[in-house]
Amino acid sequence: MILGVCTTIDNYRAVAQLGYDFIELSGYEVAHMSEPEINEATALLKRQGIPCLAINAYCREELPIVGSGFNPDNIRIYAALVSARAARLGAKTLGIGSPAARQLPAGYSNELADNQMRQFLSITAQEAAKHDLWVLYEPLNPHICQYGLSTAHGVDLVRSVGEANVGLVLDYHHMAITSEAMEDLGFAIPLTRHLHINHVGGDNRKHYMTETDLPSAVNFLAAARRLGYRGTLSVEAECEDSGFAQDAGHTLQVLRKALKQIDATEPKENER
Fold first, then answer.
1. Residues 22, 55 contacting (CB under 8 angstroms)
2. pTM
3. What is the DSSP string of the chain?
4. Is the pLDDT of residue 111 over 50?
């Protein structure tokens, strides 16, 4: 499994030194780079050789993707910008989590929100398709927004959009909070193109992983593999006081141990 980490371009050299296979940059960061900055980032990735395969954190509250501020014209302009820049950086997927852009006022129509999300995904997918990018919708959890809180709902949305390049990204954090287990999500795996993993703390934040997370990482990744998942995996967590390099490095060690354990327990090809 190819292992990446979500972080900023400022941490790129640390990502390469730690041994991750790729970096996952924020759509918001990419959108707000100046032209010289995006050119510099593109050149840096080419020099170092560690690609940016994915984009997370697509947008913030300035671009509502459901709700009263929904604006299709603004959505298309932003999608065109991020898609073009993501492609220049080498990305293959745009992850649509963005809880700040999915806030709904009390009493807002669920049917209207669903129609808006379908329109958002369709517009974004049309712009992304011009650059051979996938748009990956991410189910979230009720601690951070009011919309799109289950994998089943996400599957229904993706299937109803009607664009060939729309899929799912599944995040261990949201699944743990909403009590969804990977082994029960076989119905979603054919649509899933990317996974996020992290430690879920008592504060419901995304933390980097430690040795205590090894059993849960093994369970999560082994279940995904049994269901047929063979895509990419990124660590998505918030920086702690100890610093990015230390925390991301420890997490990479945990994931490598987890994958090694899974490999050791799987039957060899000639034993099947």
1. no
2. 0.96
3. --EEEE--GGGHHHHHHHT-SEEEEEHHHHHT--HHHHHHHHHHHHHH---EEEEE----TTS-SSSTT--HHHHHHHHHHHHHHHHHHT--EEEE--GGG----TT--HHHHHHHHHHHHHHHHHHHHTTT-EEEE----TTT-SS---HHHHHHHHHHH--TTEEEEEEHHHHHHTT--GGG-TTTGGGEEEEEE-EE-TTS-EE---GGGHHHHHHHHHHHHHTT--SEEEE-----TT-HHHHHHHHHHHHHHHHHHHHHHSPPGGG-
4. yes
